[in-house]
């Protein structure tokens, strides 16, 4: 009896202690992140198309283990058996590929510098991947490699066995490279020019590597030839091999940095490490990540939900990448990827606005406004240096995707109060230029601008691909220009012009099918219309996906469809119709189609961006409980903190930002307005520490797997019925208290006065 009482006392104590521990904020959020989430991908099926980015938030350089061959966009895939090296990378997407890259590989035994011959078997069981630290055992060489980053440099540590043949291979890669060994300084310098486009003729990435141990032997190589006596090589493909004699467990420490400006600047960037040991670099990197992640504190979910949330938050803080450096006077300067000059000011790159205008940039406006102000200055610099805004930059203009969504990004930042540190008038001039002309690439300016401005749409039959998608995105972008023009007090005629153009989406609505449809120059709709046909008039989607791309005037779309009943019926149909498709435009099943097909959610294609906001549109028609249901379904079924954790391309933080917003309980359906549309929170508690010192507390103590529906919401202690939240209100600090239930509340949020903003119903 005494034993059972002691046991009971112990269990009570343990329970109380456990509860007390669970209420304390987690200060080590970075270790919840799985950088391998989304890496089990391939060209035919993306589960993220990510790689483990070992970097600091928005770091100029990041590092990754390399499983793929030189030049392969799928540089790290989870199912690979061998590592070929450890690569400095700037790759934003496997489809865009890499630039400014070189690789380092420790080996033992006979010198082997060819990427296949030097490769080593490895296992995920002996791999540790964190944003601030990577470690792996190379079985064929009996070497442990560790990496930890700074913004423009990295610390690498190699633990060798006892051998007289310990080597480190430096591969400057092909397409033009140079390398020089300086034995007296334990140093290697060089440059790589390897890129995938979007660079000026003088593009180089200069690198420097310093070791803490003298070289026992050295060699350089070019192509397939090893040169034992040469310290320097410049050719199409060069590299170096340095050798050591090591004791068992001996650690060789290498400090690495690079610069797009000069060799001298590369050495200056190496000062980010200075005299720090590897472990100090690692600890500093970990602290930086925890500081940034702590802006969002989530509690009261499952372990997998928390790991998914912070893994997604990590992905939102990798792009756009810093493309600037600090000169000898600590001034911000950048090598221009547009004109090849070294110029003052900020520059950012590696971003596709077609993806990221939707949620990734709005998340910056909420949590990182100072960072986004720097990005806005970078956009102004890109315009001044190239004549156009960069719709897809890596590092300069790339011909990829459609739209001119820089307008959305710029307008949303300014309208949400980010107004210092950049010249909004320069950016507005750049936006206006976009509306008037085509650019040197189809993704720059507006392809079909003259047709759009004259007819109100880009015609289907004038040999401009994906014309309906362009029309719908231009109309939304015109709305954001209209909003910005009003705020800047531009001439009324200009304001009226963009207000009118924002209604151009109406020109593509087919009342017979209640869907968007390509239209010919003579005003007739395209013939042989198949709403399940991907591509053609649309971009990586079909009419069922793009019909909802009226972010700014959902009420207008409701009216076109015949009212709220028909509108919600069409929304329901997306999940009801089978995942059929027509791939004839491409001639094969593109991976985005396959990802939709296998998710068992009808024609809802969350793996690509055009439809990601659609679930929130039930709020505009008085059925918010359907948003709440489907949002939880998507979060539960399409996101996991695992190598196959996404349901399509992650895309520079956009698909991750969707999860971060949705898990918090709201989403920016229409950037360029002050509103976030409500969903339902995933966690029991989320606290946002805003940059201005205010806090947003999101409380849902009754949240669990069954209770996915909102019963009541109070904001700052007062009952709140609207289906939206104000950005301005959140920035003043707010407490949101959700009462959750397991049954949909079909009365809450049903009044027209509760609906989010639509241009058609907005007050003048």
Comma- or semicolon-separated keywords:
single chain, 764 residues, alpha+beta, Beta-galactosidase, Chain A, domain 5, Glycosyl hydrolase family fold, 9-stranded antiparallel sheet, 36 strands, 22% strand, globular, disordered N terminus
Structural write-up:
The protein is α+β, with helices and mostly antiparallel strands. The chain has 2 domains: 29-294, Beta-galactosidase, Chain A, domain 5, CATH 2.70.98; 300-761, alpha-1,2-mannosidases domains (Glycosyl hydrolase family fold). It has 20 helices and 36 strands. A 9-stranded antiparallel sheet has the order 6-7-8-9-18-13-12-11-16. Strands 1-3-4-10-17-14-15 form a 7-stranded antiparallel sheet, with no helix packed on it. Strands 19-31-32-36-33-34 form a 6-stranded mixed sheet. β21 (325-326) and β22 form a beta hairpin. α5 (303-315) crosses α19 (654-664), α7 packs across α8 and α8 packs across α10 (424-436). The longest helix is centred in the N-terminal third of the chain and has 22 residues, at 2-23. The chain is globular. The chain starts with a helix and ends in a 23-residue tail after the last strand.
